[in-house]
């Protein structure tokens, strides 16, 4: 993508229920298009095996997160899964990227997507959907990283999130990670071109 300081970049927001494969799709997207810039969310949740601090998430303590809120360092933030942890989108890296005329991709939950739409109405929201409810349940159970009561809580939240698909500008169904990543990349590149042409 060519830097263009005269035009503002496009913020593309990816959201979907827990277990739908957002992280897997983003990982595949990084392989397909290494030059695409990804926002790294700050989170107070525990680091999962294989996740890298500063790459997958910026893992912070509750006190550090409180300071980020107080200093207005987050574009949006939310309590996740009814208060189990908090996550947020650092403001400065996104604003810098968009000001440079380049697109930015943010991966968040439904609440984060709504907050980003409110903060930046021009953002393009993409919902990553499972191929079916059963597939989502299977993915969450097979993940094996959370206790059964946490999985149940995530499934309750997922029902609410799936019901909100109509709030999004586009829906990508994650039947296959590579295909979903390709579909998402096409939307990002199309929307970025639209943004440049409309200025």
Automatic annotation (TrEMBL):
Uppermost EC category: transferase
Positions of the Guanylate kinase-like domain: 9-189
Catalytic activity entry: GMP + ATP = GDP + ADP
Summary of the function given for this chain in its UniProt record: Essential for recycling GMP and indirectly, cGMP.
Single GO molecular function: GMP kinase activity
The enzyme's E.C. designation: 2.7.4.8
Keyword Cytoplasm: yes
Gene giving rise to this polypeptide: gmk
Family: Belongs to the guanylate kinase family.
Source taxon at top rank: Bacteria
Cross-referenced NCBIfam families: guanyl_kin
UniProt protein name: Guanylate kinase
Location within or outside the cell: Cytoplasm
């Amino acid at each position: 993508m060519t830097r263009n300081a005269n035009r503002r970049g496009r913020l593309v927001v990816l959201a979907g229920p827990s277990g739908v494969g957002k992280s897997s799709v983003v990982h595949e997207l990084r392989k397909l298009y290494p030059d695409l810039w990804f926002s790294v969310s700050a989170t107070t949740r525990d680091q999962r095996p294989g996740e890298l601090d500063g790459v997958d998430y910026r893992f912070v303590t509750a006190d550090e997160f409180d300071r980020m809120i107080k200093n207005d360092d987050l574009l949006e933030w939310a309590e996740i899964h009814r208060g189990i942890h908090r996550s947020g989108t650092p403001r400065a890296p996104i604003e810098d990227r968009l000001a440079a005329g380049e697109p930015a991709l943010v991966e968040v939950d439904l609440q984060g997507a709504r907050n980003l739409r409110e903060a930046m109405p021009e953002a393009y929201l993409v919902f990553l959907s499972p191929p079916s409810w059963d597939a989502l349940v299977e993915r969450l159970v097979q993940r094996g990283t959370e206790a059964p009561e946490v999985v149940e809580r995530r499934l309750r939240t997922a029902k609410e999130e799936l019901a909100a698909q109509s709030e999004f500008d586009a829906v990508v169904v994650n039947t296959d990670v590579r295909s979903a990543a390709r579909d998402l990349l096409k939307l990002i590149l199309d929307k970025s071109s639209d943004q440049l042409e409309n200025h």
